[in-house]
Amino acid sequence: MFNRAMTHISRFKLNERVLDKIFKLFFEVVGKNPSKKEFEIITNELLSYTERIMIAKRIAIMYLLLRGIERRNIARVLKVSSETISKFSLLLQFSNGIKPILNRMKGSDELSLVLEELFHALFGPGNYGVDWTAAWERRRSISRKKEDGI
User: Fold this and answer.
1) How many Cα neighbours within 13 Å face the side chain of 105?
2) pTM exceeds 0.85, yes or no
């Protein structure tokens, strides 16, 4: 159903002016979408399943590195090699574009995790009137988020 072949680019180089114009067009189509739904529709039409996964994994690797998640956990969860993680770690060090965006997201996710932990402390297993099954699942979920970042 899905084409899982490697993507290829022509060996013929584009003129810089033409390349600049097609990147502007790309931004107009993909970068200025008002809604998540439109973004999903456009990316599903433009990118293959493999390309969408590849881009999402690259962003996730950089995000998890910024959150301080261990490289082996990133490799295990995202099913990527340590070399891939190293490549994006290096890219992240010199990033002026995606790093600030991911740092903003990281801050809100850390606050969210703190609030989850507070909720768990108030309504964790052992407290009167608490569903122990749900409380233990919440505790496991918090542990996974801390360890794996996801």
Assistant:
1) 14
2) no
* pLDDT tens digits along 122-139: 666 666 666 777 777 877
Burial group, residue 83, by CB count within 10 angstroms (0-12, 13-18, 19+): exposed
For the stretch 113-119, contacts whose Cβ atoms lie closer than 8 Å and that sit 24 or more positions apart, written own/partner, are 113/142, 113/145, 113/146, 116/141, 116/142, 116/145, 117/142
Q: Which residues contact 62 (CB under 8 A, 6 or more apart)?
A: 88, 91, 92, 95, 98, 99, 102
Whose structure tokens read 């108030």? 122
